Amino acid sequence: MHGAGQVDRIPKRMGSATFVEVLLAIFIPPVGVFLRYGIGIEFWIDLVLTFFGYIPGIVYAVYVLIGTR
């Protein structure tokens, strides 16, 4: 039973398109972001982060793809 103030937490499901985007984001971070947003600000931020460090590019790409659903 759920008491007052409790919220059911239903996990978000990841679709196959999101899975492919995240998989690409791990290997080539800007490509995964490009598939979702095109040549937008998210792409350019990820490209710069990947240029300065591969890991920050991956972290940002995965955050943008999963965190902003």
From TrEMBL:
Encoding gene (name): LOC103486456
Species of origin: Cucumis melo
UniProt entry keywords in alphabetical sequence: Membrane, Transmembrane, Transmembrane helix
Family: Belongs to the UPF0057 (PMP3) family.
Superkingdom, natural source: Eukaryota
Pfam families linked: Pmp3
Phylogenetic classification of the source organism: Eukaryota, Viridiplantae, Streptophyta, Embryophyta, Tracheophyta
Transmembrane segments: 19-37, 43-66
Subcellular location: Membrane
Main location: membrane
Name of protein: Low temperature-induced protein lt101.2-like
